[in-house]
Amino acid sequence: MESPVLRLVIAIDYGTTYTGIAFATPTGNRAYLNEIDIINISGDEMSNDEKIPSVISYSPASENQERQWGSSLSSNAVAMVHTKLALDVRDNSEELDLILQALDGMHNLQIQYIREHQGSPPYPWNRPEEIVEDYLTKVFDAFLEAMTTRLPQGFPQELRERLPVDIVVTIPARWPYRAKNSTFRALTRAGFNRSTFPKLTDMLLVSEPEAAAIYTARYLKELDGADFLKKEECFTLCDAGGGTVDVVSYEVKQLQPTFELEAATLPTG
Questions:
Q1: CATH number of 8-209: 3.40.50, 3.30.70, 3.30.420, 1.20.1260?
Q2: CA–CA dist 98, 102 (Å, integer)
């Protein structure tokens, strides 16, 4: 009988307001909650927090050499916030709103304003997907740096070439195909791809309320010891985030040997 293969599972929660990342190294199909390790990707410049603001700025740093992303922003930085929501532009009116917001930020292309900034305005001309990609590239670089210090042997390319990897990314419950596609492209171009992890097996997009429901149920069972859920019972979960709120009901299909849920209603968000 073959021994279970060690693998790396990377979990990314790219939220509208905050972002977090964690990893586990299960030897089978399941990792217990106390085996999941949250990574600090903020560094000393960002108060050493486990989750960081989903913010990036293209403004030049001050003499203090701010990193211009997360919470490390210069005092006069033009911050790109809630960019994730801009991936979900569904009709022409929303696109026009984005154009109007951009023109407002550019002071309606006033020549004097452009002259004062010597041709280098503080706002970006990037599309929302490109801004998300730039932000996630910062997250990716910080992740690799943090993993190098967290693993006993470091995280060299040699290890990444022989370690099976799965990447799990949370998305809003009613994220349309266009937004899913943009999220996937931004993540892969940021570095979460087979160039970095040659043995990448799967990249899974998981709905945020489903991830929250599974975590809550397993927390009550594994860590709290509460007899909370029973087979064939239903419960409703409200995942109230900074930019999106998802509500969905689930039915418990199975508790052992693995925990299984099934959506009992269509998610609303």
A1: 3.30.420
A2: 6
